[in-house]
Design goal:
The protein has about 150 residues and is α/β, with parallel strands linked by helices. Helices cover about 25% and strands about 30% of the residues.
Length: about 150
């Protein structure tokens, strides 16, 4: 009889831990409900950027990447991003893809300008794509950089 009680207790503990894990994940993951302003930017190289990655201003998360697409005419990567409702961006905002670390992924870094405010669906054209770290190191070591 004591063995069954122990099995029941262990089973209950497993269920409690599983529920706690689900609650933890739900609170940590940003499940966007679509609120915010949608912007687009085109890049020559997006590196390992993926939908769901951060959009940041001065290191502060203000949105997320919502889609990646290829421009069929110019063969540029078009990135769609949603920015929180309280954040307005000027039309001359500089958009760059930055590395989260040496082994980490990428995120979109916004550097707002001072011009007229951009509306929903605006396409930013002043962009800097992802930098290939291995390519940059090999160029600096073996030449190829202009002086």
């Amino acid at each position: 009889m004591g063995g069954r009680a122990l099995e029941t207790l262990v089973g209950a503990a497993v269920i409690v831990v599983a529920v706690a894990f689900v609650v933890f994940v739900y609170e940590r993951v940003d499940i966007s409900d679509g609120d915010g302003t949608v912007f687009h930017a085109e890049f020559e190289n997006i590196g390992s950027l993926q939908a769901g990655d951060d959009v940041r201003i001065a290191g502060i998360r203000v949105g997320q990447v919502t889609g990646l697409d290829l421009d069929p005419d110019w063969y540029l990567a078009r990135v769609a991003m949603t920015v929180e409702p309280g954040v307005s961006l000027p039309r001359d905002t500089f958009v760059a893809i930055a590395s989260a670390g040496l082994l980490g992924g990428h995120y979109v870094s916004l550097h707002p300008g001072t011009g007229e405010v951009a509306g929903d669906g605006h396409l930013f054209t002043d962009t800097q794509g992802a930098i290939n770290l291995i390519d940059a190191v090999s160029r600096s070591m073996f030449g190829g950089l202009e002086e």
